[in-house]
């Protein structure tokens, strides 16, 4: 005769906490709980840890397909990395940046490209209005802000048009939207946009290299942080364990996963809100939680890397940073191995590696050879024909992943914050929620993921030690 869940859970050893998802959030939560003496199991659906942090190599050099950069005020992830012995290097930022705008390539310095005086004035005007709105928003409870409903009722695009932002300003904001949320300005709620940027410390802090979120990177890749966390956790981490069911009983919770069920006193679900919708909760979650999962979609972003014998663009005075209003490559960075002159090494300079963020709308559906051709021609439009002759190339489309697709983060549409926001991380019985989307500081970033894991572990500790 089939056993009931309660009978089964009486037979299986009950652990203290199951963590769903072995991204930065889940692994950090598990580490904190283990340090507090709890018995923890981490269930990860993929065959690897790291989630949206995934490191591979190109021309023998580690590069990140997902989360890459860190910067000032991201103390949570930077401290964690330091504790685990993962070092950072400054992002290469010497030389002139390029912008391909309206068919012409121009050089500039700083984050804001060289546009005409009028265009620059308009960018500053819009940034000023954006900052002014953000001052009146609480990152923790944005739905309570004055005008929250009207801000959440419109997209970033509608807001820009209501202020008669120029076409150049709108195109620059579209680039920000693409790289930040993986969506277009007419898909993201203005309330979400303002809250998100505030959680990062402002537009400058979020977009800058020096002094901003792109200031530093990990020469060994960001996934090494997750791998070292997983090493510490050892057999507590189970891979290929897609969680399909979470059943709440009187005093316990059974988590049904590929490879076996685990019963626990509490569960931390450390996955993006959209992916919560793929889990069957029993009894069903209150309707707000189900709707939240449906209305908090993931954005889509893709990346292409090309490696060359040397960083040839540096010889031409270029930093390797560029913006383009024509796709599919719309932002580039130089992520070549650390400069030998900076590290005091005598090895020759090389390989040179360009990272290009690519627009999934015109990139993801192409066959691999065509993607390569389009990405290389995008690099060549900016840096010259030498870019057409790489020694190695790779790309990755997060929106087409089979399991848990999407990234960099949620592209929250109008209406979601004011309707479902209060339930984003509110526990249900013994179910707690983590993941970068639930963070109040650096939400959407690696740092936000670590902070959310810490917060969820602290909530569980309070619950279990009562
Ligand atoms: C292209 C790209 C570029 C980025 N660039 C940067 C950057 O430069 N700097 C930065 O700070 N951040 C960046 N990010 C964002 C950063 O990677 C994420 O914020 C961070 O990795 C999120 O961590 P997380 O633990 O919250 O979620 P995730 O990393 O998504 O972890 C969730 C885990 O849960 C697993 N999972 C999902 N559903 C289930 C289930 N049902 N059962 C079991 N397991 C499940 C997933 O496989 C995944 O491993 C980037 C992301 C992308 C995609």
Structure description:
- The chain has 466 residues and is α/β, with parallel strands linked by helices.
- The chain has 18 helices and 20 strands.
- The strands form four sheets. Strands 1, 2, 10, 11, 12, 13, 14 and 20 form an eight-stranded mixed sheet that branches. The chain has a seven-stranded mixed sheet with strand order 8-7-16-17-18-15-19. It has a three-stranded antiparallel sheet with strand order 5-9-6, with no helix packed on it.
- The longest helix is centred in the N-terminal third of the chain and has 19 residues, at 117-135.
- It is globular.
- The two termini are 37 Å apart.
- 51% of the residues are buried.
- The mean pLDDT is 94.
- Bound molecules: flavin-adenine dinucleotide.
- Residues 20-26, 43-46, 51-53, 66-69, 242-243, 270-272, 275, 278-279, 301, 303, 398, 404, 407-409, 435-436, 444-447, 449 line the site of flavin-adenine dinucleotide (FAD).
- Flavin-adenine dinucleotide (FAD) binds at residues 20-26, 43-46, 51-53, 66-69, 242-243, 270-272, 275, 278-279, 301, 303, 398, 404, 407-409, 435-436, 444-447, 449.
Map the helices and strands:
Blueprint: H1 5-11, E1 15-20, H2 24-35, E2 40-43, E3 55-58, E4 61-64, E5 69-70, H3 75-83, E6 89-90, E7 96-101, E8 104-108, H4 117-135, H5 148-152, H6 156-162, H7 167-181, H8 190-199, H9 203-207, E9 216-217, H10 223-233, E10 237-238, E11 243-248, E12 253-257, E13 260-269, H11 273-276, E14 280-282, H12 287-294, E15 302-308, H13 312-315, E16 318-324, E17 329-334, H14 340-343, E18 352-358, H15 360-363, H16 368-383, E19 392-397, H17 416-420, E20 431-433, H18 446-464
Parallel strand pairs: 1-2, 1-13, 2-10, 7-16, 11-14, 13-20
Antiparallel strand pairs: 3-4, 5-9, 6-9, 7-8, 11-12, 12-13, 15-18, 15-19, 16-17, 17-18
